[in-house]
Amino acid sequence: MTELIYDIGMHDGDDTEFYLRKGFRVVAVEADPETCRTTAERFTNFLATGQLTIVNRAIAPARGPLIFYRSRTSGWGTIVSEIDIDNAARGVASDEIIVEGITLADLVSEHGDAFYMKIDIEGMDRRALESLATTSVRPKYLSMETSFSRNPSFEAARGDFELLGHLGYDRFKIIDQAQIEDQLPPRPPLTGAFVPIRFTSGASGLFGEETPGPWQAIEGALAEFRRLIRRKWLDVRLYRNMRYYLLYCRIMFRLTGRYSNLGWYDIHAKHSSVD
Question: Does the pLDDT of residue 261 top 80, yes or no?
């Protein structure tokens, strides 16, 4: 049977399409029902063959209905009220809708183990992994968005790595998503089929052995994150007061034409069971 990928946080479906074109089965999870409808129309053939399953649910701490803050900025929707408040402080509005929630444990108990799991669910990544810890499912490769962009501290980053270590992941890469458009799939491919693609901003990019850079033990990955925090020391300090931070971002935009930000960093992890 073709190996499985979980796309937790399907968003616009571009990551899902990449995984499908590489030949994997995909279970794609998305809380926004409108996004699920439009994506289902886009992937009619993959749904018909069973290669793709779309699950219109929010990954949550428990089963049941909950509020989803559907952001007016694509990809910023969340079930975490603190994240929505933070988004509003940045001038990003949302609409409240009621959606059904399931835990990540619920999801994997139905669909089984996987080759790779991508998690990008705006403030719920770590809670999702805590749910996974209650199961025996351990994807060979896994990626999550770090807590750094919302909690810019070394302690937050260390918490992410320690949880992954508890789950049995022992090799890591920190991927700067600002450089995602520079990623090129290797040829011949190291994972699945070769797909000629130029990633766009917002994509998760390559996965597994095709991700750029060497794998590191947890000590090396944490040292890299500490260096990253030192490079962004001014952003980190100003972020403690959102009013000053947003003023700083506006000034930097006037001076450079680019908004200063803490960045989007993903942790890619390789399980200890993989050679």
Answer: no
Contact 138, 114 (CB under 8 A): no
DSSP string, 175-233: EEGGGGGG----SS-SSSS-----PPTT-----GGGSSS--B-HHHHHHHHHHHHHHTH
Burial of 213 by CB count in 10 Å (0-12 exposed, 13-18 middle, 19+ buried)?
A: exposed
Instruction: Quick: pLDDT tens for 163-179.
Output: 999 999 999 999 998 88
Give the DSSP H/E element, type plus range, for residue 43.
none
At 75-95, the pLDDT tens digits run: 889 999 988 888 887 778 999
Nearest alpha-carbon partner for 116 in 89, 132, 84, 140: 140
SS3 assignment, position 275: coil
Burial class (CB within 10 angstroms; exposed 0-12, middle 13-18, buried 19+) of 169: buried
